[in-house]
Amino acid sequence: MNGIQVDINGLKRGEVNLGTSIMAVTFKDGVILGADSRTTTGAYIANRVTDKLTRVHEKIWCCRSGSAADTQAVADIVQYYLDLYTTQFGEPSTKAAASIFKSLCYENKDNLTAGIIVAGYDDKNKGEVYSIPLGGSIHKQPYAIAGSGSTFIYGYCDKNFKDNMAKDEAIDFIKHSLSQAIKWDGSSGGVIRMVVLTAEGAERLIFYPDDYEQL
Amino acid sequence: MAGLSFENYQRNQFLSSRTNGTPKATSTGTTIVGVKFNGGVVIAADTRSTQGPIVANKNCAKLHRMAPRIWCAGAGTAADTEEVTKLVGSNLELHSLYAGRAPRVVSALQMLKQHLFKYQGHVGAYLIVAGVDPTGAHLFSIHAHGSTDVGFYQSLGSGSLAAMAVLEANWKPELTKEEAMTLAADAIEAGIWNDLGSGSNVDLCVMEVGKDAAYLRNHRTPNVREPKQQSYKFARGTTGILSQRVLDVCQVEEQVVDVEA
Amino acid sequence: MSDPSSINGGICVAMTGKDCVAIACDLRLGSQSLGVSNKFEKIFPFGHVFLGLTGLATDVLTLSEVFRYKTNLYKLREDRYIEPQTFTQLVSSTLYEKRFGPYFTGPIVAGINSKTGKPYIAGFDLIGCIDEAKDFVVSGTASEQLFGMCESLYEPNQESEDLFETISQALLNSADRDALSGWGAVVYIIKKNEVIKRYLKTRQD
């Protein structure tokens, strides 16, 4: 490590990898998170129905990519902090949650392989998306994509994303995007999972290969 | 585990720099599986342990009890699966004594994953955790680096691919207890026959909601050794002896006696 | 060939019989191919429990003294000798304490439980994984040869004198096919109330 070029070393030998396509999109009523469901150890699919959309608070969720162990550990710690925060100060904002994620990812950047998207709904700021890539920086975005499969859909997402989409429109956008990511990325696959975060709470959706493959 | 000592670490680094490699620890090679069914969960394991290409033990036990109704199948470094399971098992008992409640599977899961994550994969334990508690039946798997998975069926170890093939082919929703036991044992057998690191017998543990766990040691024994048709017994006196000594094994009793001056 | 556990050479084996156990080792201590001593015994008695230690000689000696210390304290606290089963757990936890800087030894335990009268043997890897066998356990530089010999010669429920022949022949013939083992051998035949120690006639090359 020389200070300028950070050595983001690969996974430790035999480590479980979330070779992943994940995204989160703000829309009219809130925010929607989406992810594939494949985890791999080398060429073996260790889990084909993984849930990469993880709850850290009632209406603040995250998409995990990178090392399964690292991202689970970070998400567990954030969940704990937010629980504590809630008992002391009440409902946390999405920004506060994302900030905790960022601190953990930044302070421990040398030991973590974690690319996380934090998305949440709070009554003041409505739907928000924060992307926290490998080095531990934080970026507020209208939508975010990450993981190995995301490289294939930068163009598609840029062309097709619209502000203030309707719920069905946003779901379709995610479904189409992840469908392409899964198609072209070998380490993404399985089902598409989504979580819709609005004032009403969290709603889970699942789409099987038959639903998304021949869109 | 606060008591791990690194006293010999530097010496061993020096030693391994002067020699070719260090001795290998016993690995469980292993096929282990877990299957959920209506009202419970079953876990199973083969019984071969290996040191490199040598079979160290033909009938070892890879199913560990962490609590009366929470059991754990272990693959990877044999000593690590044994120790980590023992450690978390006793902390679980303390925890349930403190809380006055039966221990939960998620507690075991969280304690195991946090311990393994702390050691960054150096503690080489790959575990399938299963059990029943007041919240129902549960099945999880944990990798050495501390990541966990949830599912209706799980397989781990060198024979996990063979076992998973059987699970993927034959698993269906709403299994009965007997169906799940058969499926789990079949999956282990796939490992026993098709994976070189796995062999010998099938151990099983069935955990049903509201019932005591049933540990079925050597549930299937498809590799019974053919009895020897003849004997290699040597005639007494075959081996030459230089000298012999009968050791004193009676316990010495001491008595203090007053001696008159 | 020259990892730490095979610098000094040496082997150990234990077997169960009918109301008896046997444990045996060779006597060689070497430095690679150079023979250094033919009086290096690798079996250490702690009360009625016997511990065989092969591997790196410095660790064999260190561990034998660690266990002498620990079993003496045990005797002081409990006013009785340690049982084989208890001692096995002690060995396991002592070795695992050094999980990330291990002693390069392969210990084996043999003894008869003084309460139940049942024979007991166990083996370990270098970080304390217990291998509880009911027939035989082996360790050392000729462990592969020993596995082969024991697997073919062993039969259950032998009288102590027959067990002596079996374990001796297993040890001797294994050592003869290992350049790092041999140079004499010791066998302990352990019964509930009697222990016989025998030095064997062996090749000296």
Automatic annotation (TrEMBL), chain A:
InterPro entries referenced in this protein's UniProt entry, alphabetically: Ntn_hydrolases_N, Pept_T1A_subB, Proteasome_bsu_CS, Proteasome_sua/b, Proteasome_suB-type
Signal peptide segment: none
rRNA processing found in the keyword field: no
Known EC number: 3.4.25.1
GO biological-process terms attached to the record: proteasomal ubiquitin-independent protein catabolic process; proteasome-mediated ubiquitin-dependent protein catabolic process
Catalytic reaction equation(s): Cleavage of peptide bonds with very broad specificity
Origin superkingdom: Eukaryota
Gene Ontology MF, one: threonine-type endopeptidase activity
Compartments reported by the entry: Nucleus
Main location: nucleus
GO cellular component: cytoplasm; nucleus; proteasome core complex, beta-subunit complex
Positions annotated as active site in the UniProt record: 20
CDD domains in the record: proteasome_beta_type_6
SUPFAM superfamilies documented for this protein: N-terminal nucleophile aminohydrolases (Ntn hydrolases)
Key words of the record: Cytoplasm, Hydrolase, Nucleus, Protease, Proteasome, Threonine protease, Zymogen
Subunit structure: The 26S proteasome consists of a 20S proteasome core and two 19S regulatory subunits. The 20S proteasome core is composed of 28 subunits that are arranged in four stacked rings, resulting in a barrel-shaped structure. The two end rings are each formed by seven alpha subunits, and the two central rings are each formed by seven beta subunits. The catalytic chamber with the active sites is on the inside of the barrel.
Protein known as: proteasome endopeptidase complex
Taxonomic path: Eukaryota, Fungi, Dikarya, Ascomycota, Saccharomycotina
Automatic annotation (TrEMBL), chain B:
Chain segments annotated as transmembrane: none
Active site: 30 (nucleophile)
Keyword flag Transmembrane: no
Subcellular localization, as worded in the UniProt entry: Nucleus
GO cellular component terms, semicolon-separated: cytoplasm; nucleus; proteasome core complex, beta-subunit complex
Protein EC: 3.4.25.1
Gene Ontology molecular functions: threonine-type endopeptidase activity
Alphabetized Gene3D superfamilies for the sequence: Glutamine Phosphoribosylpyrophosphate, subunit 1, domain 1
Domain Proteasome beta subunit C-terminal: 222-257
Protein origin, superkingdom: Eukaryota
A GO BP annotation: proteasome-mediated ubiquitin-dependent protein catabolic process
Pfam families, A to Z: Pr_beta_C (PF12465), Proteasome (PF00227)
Keyword terms, alphabetized: Cytoplasm, Hydrolase, Nucleus, Protease, Proteasome, Threonine protease
Subunit structure: The 26S proteasome consists of a 20S proteasome core and two 19S regulatory subunits. The 20S proteasome core is composed of 28 subunits that are arranged in four stacked rings, resulting in a barrel-shaped structure. The two end rings are each formed by seven alpha subunits, and the two central rings are each formed by seven beta subunits. The catalytic chamber with the active sites is on the inside of the barrel.
Name of this protein: proteasome endopeptidase complex
TrEMBL record, chain C:
Top-level taxon: Eukaryota
UniProt KW Cytoplasm keyword: yes
GO terms (BP aspect): proteasomal ubiquitin-independent protein catabolic process; proteasome-mediated ubiquitin-dependent protein catabolic process
Species this protein is from: Lachancea mirantina
Classification via SUPFAM superfamilies: N-terminal nucleophile aminohydrolases (Ntn hydrolases)
GO CC, one annotated term: cytoplasm
Main localization category: nucleus
Pfam families: Proteasome
InterPro entries linked: Ntn_hydrolases_N, Proteasome_beta_3, Proteasome_bsu_CS, Proteasome_sua/b, Proteasome_suB-type
UniProt keywords, alphabetically: Cytoplasm, Nucleus, Proteasome
Subcellular location(s) of the protein: Nucleus
Name of the protein: LAMI_0D12552g1_1
Subunit structure, interactors included: The 26S proteasome consists of a 20S proteasome core and two 19S regulatory subunits. The 20S proteasome core is composed of 28 subunits that are arranged in four stacked rings, resulting in a barrel-shaped structure. The two end rings are each formed by seven alpha subunits, and the two central rings are each formed by seven beta subunits. The catalytic chamber with the active sites is on the inside of the barrel.
